[in-house]
Amino acid sequence: MTPYTYVAAWAVDAGFLMSRDGLTIELLNSDVGRFVLTREPADLLAEADRERAIGSAWLRRIVGQLGGEFEAVLPEVLQEIIAERGRLAGDLPVLVFEAHGEAALEINPGHAGRFEGFTVVIDGVNKQLLRSQYRPTIEAMKLAISLESRSRPRFRALADGFCFRDWNGEPVYSLTFSSSAEATAVGTLTADVPDRISARFASLQGLPDLRRVQSLFSDLTDTEDDRLRAFLSGWAALEVLIQKAFKSYEEAFLAPLVSADQPQLRERFLQRLREVMRGKYRLADKFLAVSAVLFTGVPDPVITAYQEQFLKLKGLRDSIYHGEEFSEKNLPIQELSTLLRDYLTAWLDAATRDFSASV
Fold this sequence. Notes:
Blueprint: E1 2-13, E2 24-29, E3 34-38, H1 46-62, H2 70-89, E4 94-103, E5 112-115, E6 118-122, H3 127-132, H4 135-146, E7 154-165, E8 171-175, H5 193-205, H6 211-222, H7 227-254, H8 263-277, H9 283-294, H10 300-321, H11 333-358
Parallel strand pairs: 6-8
Antiparallel strand pairs: 1-4, 1-7, 2-3, 3-4, 5-6, 7-8
Helix pairs in contact: 1-2, 5-11, 6-7, 7-9, 7-11, 9-10
């Protein structure tokens, strides 16, 4: 087990300000964690800021937008984060929560980077699961503070990070690569919607292969201001979905070739085709095959529109990965989200029909 420190902070807009003399007020210090209200959170948030800076610089490096050596640009990225927090907090008091614990941290050499004074790992631990154990305590403190306010209180998230310590006591940061306002289509919650939601939830529970897609889709929907991360997470979810769907539907796509005359000869031909093409199908090829099976009976113009959307999004993703310039503000996150939703819905509806037919 690896020891860690978890730190989270919020600017508290609850109708009161802290005096200049009271820089820090300790509200609670127990086995669960420590809460303080402060005007000067920098020291308390140092590790959380550093984790965020490392994650931001790491992602920029992946997409070719770093602008220098990784370690060399970290101080600049860190200062950007501190300055941004200062703008968000303004003169408001900052609530800081600090907790300590231990967790099983996986340091896979193939997914880790060792630098001077610290180590970076990718998906080394489920941080969301770790956070969840502190949620009731944090919510209780927010409510207690809110009861002191005569106006509607607001807690503006400023920081949220983990710092693990290896056996030498050096920091280890686990990164997970899980927007501007989008137009929102508002619909009515009709009587059949809860049943559809329940059926799709049951399908997801029975499809553990889609856990990675679920995680990436959640990252797409939870990301507020980082449009690049939202786009890359959404694209990764779509790509994983297509790869998994193709494995399931390749047989169905090729089935018409064996249903005509001379089925044994055709089956031999298809077996040979699979051997030759194994590992050679492009993602766009798999997308077409999956579309043909999932959307049987759908008019050709609809499928053509899906294909054009897919190729457009793939072209943008490829250009980002090749380091070409792009406008983060204009990333088509809504279009990507819609395409991903349509294919996920079709997959789950098909799974529900297959399950019903087998019962």
